[in-house]
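Aim 2, interim progress. The first record below pairs a target sequence with its structure tokens.
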Amino acid sequence: MNIDVLPTAQSATTYDFSGKVSVIIDVLRATSVITSALNSGATAVYPVSTIDEALQLKKTLSSPSLLCGERNADRIEGFDLGNSPQHFTPSAVCGKNIILTTTNGTLAFSNSLASQNIIAASLLNYVAVAEQLLCLSSDICLVCAGNNGTVSFEDSACASLILNHIVSRYPRVRVLSDFAHTIVPLATLPDLPTRLRQGQHCQKLVAKGYSHDVEFCLSSASQTSVIPTLCYVSSKPALTIVQSDSNIYSA
């Protein structure tokens, strides 16, 4: 098994995803939102890159759908929900499709669609994701969404936690890129959540009034076994729910 790590969504545009299982990581906040929405009973989450794509997709879906997402961290005007995971409650999203567009996270999905399979990870479900990856024989690419083309501390740390969990259980894994080797020590930093709160993206969200989102997304107490897994629904890529105790690639 080989594992690679990409630092940003933009770096995925030139990467060869052939035969690889990709794990998209956007801790603040897209993959935390996706995990929360599916955990609350949403039917599926459709990640799209642009606002126009979101508006057009809603016109084509026959079942109840919500427009959700952000630009510059704030809810898009006219959309039903923003990008705050705690707003994706059962009463708000159960039985509904979520059409999601964000600055970084959904771009990472779009840029990784050539992968053999795609799943979403955050600090809310990284243990379940790592355990699932251990069941696979495929090579793995952890795709950090980053922040507007720059490296994001919290995404890199989440990738490090997944990578370390896998290596501790399967020492023969081969870590490929320099960036992957660089982030390995992050998982062992003392008081990691406190350090992550000092990150640039965390500070931006706190300054804009989203401190509750930061606390929720960084909370290890919020661990769930939900593994959002990409499939195609009516020819559109969508994330649906898979539990950690099932093999997402079984026939």
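The second target in this work package is listed in the same format:
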Amino acid sequence: MAQKKDKEPKNTYTIYEDNTMGRVTIANEVIVAVAAIAALEIDGVAHLGGGITLDKASRAGERALSRGVKAELEEGKIHVRLIVYLNYGCSIPETCTKIQERVKSTLENMTGIDVAEVRVSVADIVTQ
């Protein structure tokens, strides 16, 4: 299970350690970016907090993404909070459930770290 190590740089987590091959770490910025992109791929999501769209998410840094996504590792599990803006006409409960499922499965598949929760806050509805 992933654990935060004292000797690692701040916001970096060990996801794999092998005495013969070495250690693999992942920065919190990567977790935030993966969560952002996964959420933005869902139909009905206009953008995240801070105006982050799918086109901008892969190029945005942690500071820009932090307006719409927060991720923390607690007791070996990821906790994600998202602020989303949805397109007018989409089903809010359905869209939010899809966001939660996609973010959870994508993070777990890409990092190997269990996701404890994905909180989604709908900040507004966007008309096109």
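The chain has four helices and six strands. This observation will shape the mutagenesis plan for the next reporting period.
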